[in-house]
Amino acid sequence: MVGEEGAFVLGWDEVLTEEELSTTLKVLCMSEEEFKEYKEQDGWEDDSEEEENSTLSNEALSRLKPPCKKLLYDSVLLTLQSYRSDLEAEQDLLNNKEAYEKLSRREQQALHVRYGQKRILHQVLELVQ
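The line above is the sequence of N-lysine methyltransferase SETD6; the predicted structure tokens follow.
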């Protein structure tokens, strides 16, 4: 369900791997009976039209069912814990001109990437609380 990378791709405005995330959340939040039915039907073939017309925008994330919100929230927390530093530490380093200039160009770029990733993850946390 997750694809080759084993991760979901989140953007500022929506989930870029929305089909994978949507299917994963649905399956993981199913009861045993619902999952048996899902397996027997080889998925939701008749839901394809509904899913084509829906996107997992930030607004849609905030309207997920509570079990899906909790699962997504906990997953984001685990992802944030995998970083060596938190969002505030990255922001402090970005604001400290002297410390920032001591970083190599590559370290500066990595800092910007990490900071952006963490901001998106914190945004998702707020949406699914």
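Note on the example: The helical segments are 18-28, 32-40, 48-52, 58-62, 66-81, 87-95, 97-102, 105-128. The mean pLDDT is 86.
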